[in-house]
């Protein structure tokens, strides 16, 4: 499946492209069914309600419209395949602070793909944006993402919600 998009960065295995969903829907009949395949209950269980119960193309279109109205959506695929394997979400809170999130289809877990994706995004952002801080929120029970964020240099911030943990990655700390 080729997604109508603009390639933003690549890593050793991945291609990450900004998804232009209105064009993609017109051009690619495979996009909505693939979203349904990726957004399985195990993948979205700790995500907001609008990620839940994506069971058909109508649900996928609603989800896509909601996500794209709130953030920039990036399609993640392997460089040597056109198959969509996940998404990266970037919501600009300000010119210097952005909230990020990601998801990968369950078949792509535990292969180092999330680490490669976020490392690639951080490297790209350092060179091509004026971001000073990345913010990532996650469910307190998501141990894999917690370990990943800490490994990449994010730090846990104080939070009043026991169920959600907020992590920051500050670019200026890299300059020291």
TrEMBL record:
It comes from the Bacteria. Signal peptide: none annotated. Residues 37-176 form the N-acetyltransferase domain. Gene3D superfamilies: 3.40.630.30. Pfam families: Acetyltransf_3. InterPro entries: Acyl_CoA_acyltransferase, GNAT_dom, N-acetyltransferase. SUPFAM superfamilies: Acyl-CoA N-acyltransferases (Nat) (SSF55729). One of its GO terms (molecular function) is acyltransferase activity, transferring groups other than amino-acyl groups. PANTHER family: GNAT FAMILY, PUTATIVE (AFU_ORTHOLOGUE AFUA_3G00765)-RELATED-RELATED. This is N-acetyltransferase domain-containing protein. It comes from Agarivorans albus MKT 106.
